[in-house]
Amino acid sequence: MSAPETPLFVEIGNVPRDYAWGRIDGVAGVLGTAGSGGPEAELWLGAHPGSPARATGDAPWATLLDWERENGARLPFLLKILVSGGPLSLQAHPTTAQAQAGFADENARGIPLEAAHRNYKDPYAKPELIVALEDGFEALCGFRPVTETLADVDVLAARAGSDALAPWRAELAGPDGLRAGFAWLLGGGAEVDLAVAALVAAAAGDDRFELVTRLAEAYPGDPGIAVALMLHHITLSAGESLWLPAGNIHAYLRGAGVELMGPSDNVLRGGLTPKHVDVAELQRVLTFSASDDDRLVPVELAENVRSYRPRIHASGADVPFELLAVTGDASLELAGPSIAIATDGSFTLAADGATAQVPRGAAVFVSRAAVVQATGSGRLWIATAVSL
Fold first, then answer.
1. pTM: predicted TM-score of the whole model, two decimal places
2. Which end of the chain is more exposed for a tag (fewer CB within 10 A), N or C?
3. d(Cα 341, Cα 347) in Å, to the nearest integer?
């Protein structure tokens, strides 16, 4: 028996996730909706079982997870509105091959899916892109050239009044400095504790190292404070984007953005967190080479339409999604199921005799491939599957 047919357009919604790092009424502030009065960190729009989007309009299913199950489909993306008032954990994500191998291995060893020390919750990759919704979105993203980190360490060591930073500097200056310096910090111990304390003390009051002070206030004594000096500290203006492929170490620091990612829970953390850190596995998936600027430059597809289409990621496989930014009237050829949300203005979507209204703060699921006419003005974001 086939599943009941889903309308082309279905209004959807969800409740913001209340993670502690979110801003008070953060998602509501971005979308112009009623706030909860508490921290609002992320609004999830997808079929992820942790918080599947719910149908608020006519549909033969209650959530997008039900839609997946009834149609034997997998939505290849999760769209989020993210609003950070403070730093998230340092983290990286595996390739598909690494995720499949890790998931199978942990299953074979009988590690429960809900175990705190479990690394692989599913067999999928988790590539990510984020587009800033406001000026001043900050992130750590990818390793800097080790010479730049050494220069900063030398400045701080001269102020420290001790040799506490010398062991870390020696690791950084070695033949595989990025890997060795990172491993030394995450290995922990008394020497690492002394080095982090000396780093924080030497950075105090210096605007150049303000991030060190900020991270120390949020996560006192965490070795991730020092790891941050090894990474690019990037500030985005509204509309600028970062692409975070497998193996890239990163952390969002503060700001609002629209995020599109693979719908996976595979996160390997590397500091700035009270959660489990598997140092050996993290090092296995990380790319230990200095990265270029990881900004993703959008492509003008047509008048009023920009495409944020990720580059091929580290697994060598193409990424099966893209993010469209629509600012006015446009014809949109959507290759598969899609999700649209308006952060400014108001739009009408029309295709195959069906229409949907998308005012600011509203979201719509487009259930299949279609040529959609968008009319209106403002800012409409469309996450869409792409043909591979």
1. 0.95
2. N
3. 10
Same domain, 88 and 168: no
CA torsion, ordered 158, 164, 169, 174, to nearest 10 deg: 140
Confidence of residue 56 (pLDDT cuts 50, 70, 90): very high
The number of distinct structural domains making up the chain is 3
Q: Which amino acid is at 289?
A: S
Is 294 within 8 Å of 232 (Cβ atoms)?
yes
Give the tokens for residue 92: 């990286």
- Note whether 103 and 199 are same-domain residues: no
pLDDT grade, residue 315 (50/70/90)? very low
Amino acid sitting at position 1: M
Closest listed residue to residue 230, CA positions, set 178, 284, 154, 165 = 178
**Is the predicted pLDDT of residue 151 greater than 90, yes or no?**
yes
Helix H or strand E segment including 364: strand 363-366
- Cα 262 from Cα 256, distance rounded (Å): 19
Are 53 and 178 part of one and the same domain? no
Same domain (yes/no): 207, 332: no
Looking at residue 330, which CATH number applies to its domain? 2.60.120.10
Is there a single domain that holds both residue 121 and residue 204?
Answer: no
User: Which residue range is the domain that position 86 belongs to?
Assistant: 9-136+237-285
Say yes or no to pLDDT of 311 above 70. no
